[in-house]
Structures are given as structure tokens and as C-alpha cells.
Amino acid sequence: MNLNAADRPLDLFDDEAWATLTTNLLTAARIARETDLAGLLLDPEAYSDADPGTGRPRYNAFDYGRRARAEEPFAAYQQQAFRRGFAAVQAMGGANPEITLLLAFAYSWPCLLEDGDPSGRAYGLLPAFVDGMLAARPGRMHIVDGFETAYGARRCDEFVAARRALRGRCAALSLAPERLADLKVAFGLWMDFRSTGPCARFAAAGEPCPWYDPVLHPESRQDLLDPARFREGVAAALTLTDGYVWIYAEQARWWATDARTANLPETYAEAVRAGRQAAGGACPQP
What we know:
Low-confidence stretches: none
Number of strands: 6
Radius of gyration: 20 Å
Order of helices and strands: HEHEHHEHEEHHEHH
Shape: globular
Strand order of the largest sheet: 1-2-3-4
Distance between the termini: 32 Å
């Protein structure tokens, strides 16, 4: 489920919009309980068109620069973000107190992909929202930073550094850094890494893209498409996660009914299987 807007403004002080979003999250939590799902993946990314002036998404609830109340200071928006996160998890936890909520990213994006004053970061208000989630969390609920920022990671040291950053410098973005001890760590891996551009001409022609062909990609990224490297990444991520590793792909389709639509060479499926088998001993524990 997406936590952000795609086609209209979503301000943290818009009570009507957030009542709708919270109701939808509550409904999803109930469905997860009734269908025996472990939890939900929540995506805070803003997918609206880019503003031509800044290059940032035109609509983004977690970007202070997109606020509706120009006179409100950043601290006031932080407190409102906290309240929205708290209310969302309070509602979901009341319906499903053992649910796992895996965010595609939480503190990790504004901490590792942005710098400068938090008020100037595109997701500078997200940490306060997650603070509120953690404050409202029932004891048996798990809230997870999914570390989308690890998409291109393949080595043990990259995952170790990500974990250390979350417990270290990323805590500076939190209103209550002591609560980060309650946040679980997962890792996202992008299998057909940054294939959107190289595959654009195939998409325009309605043809499957041979995304696995190194020739399509810049030399600096070719090794990230190598199935052996991907296997190493799966094994390392599974060794160092608190429970989850999730795989993103744009060209490959895991559940397609025919090979042409799937566009998934067996070597990559085997890389996932082999990575799972190697998990546990692939990296030294930090």
C-alpha cells in the first residue's frame, strides 16, 4: 500500500485525507488478519510527476517544501507527522496487533540518500511519521525499515554499513532515537538493477527486454546484473536481516504463466534458491 499521493496534494494537516488513508490502512490490517497474512508492505514513496523547478515529486506528504501551511515551522509539521503515524498504527494495531508492517524505506532514505537540513530533504518528515508508528506499536507488532536504499548492494560490508547507519547517524533524524531499537531491519534488492533506461526502446516496441545482457548496461553496473553476484547479495542480505529480504524487478515477472512474459532466466531463479541455502553463514555477524 502506498502512503503518499500520486495525483493530488496530501498535506499532513488535511484531516479528511488522512482519515481516509487511516481507514484504508485499518481495512487492510483486518483483511491481513482474516486471510492469515503475516503483514503488509507500506510504500512511502511519492510517485507523482516531478516539479520542473526542483525535480522533486509535485505531491509528497513528507516533503516540508510541499506544505500547504506556509507559515507553519518545520517542528510543527514534524509533530503532525508523528501524530499521523501514531494514529495509523493505533488503528491497525487495534485490528491486528501481531501484524508486520514492512516499509519500503523509513529512516534509511532521508538519512542515506539525502543530506543537509532535514527541513530541506524530500522525505525529511518521514522519520517523525515512523517515530509515531513506533510509539503506537503494540508489543507483538513488528515495524520494519525495508532499506530500499540497498537495491544495488551485493556485499556483506554494504549490508553491515546499512545496519550501523540506522543505529548510528540515522538516529539524529528521529524525535525519539531510543525507539529505533524497536525497528527491525530488512533489505530490498533490485534484480534487474536500473534497467528502466536501457530497456526503454524495447518497451516502446512492445518487446521483452533482454535486461540480463551486460551489453545493454554501463560497464560500471554490469556486475550488479551478474547472477552469481546476485546470489551473493541474496545470501548476504538474508544473513544480516532481522527477518525479511524482498526482491524488486521491473522487467522480470515471477508469477507469469509463460516464459516470454516472465522474462526471467533460470539462472536468476537458481541464484535466489542458492542464496537462500547459503544464508546464515555468508557474512560475519556485526
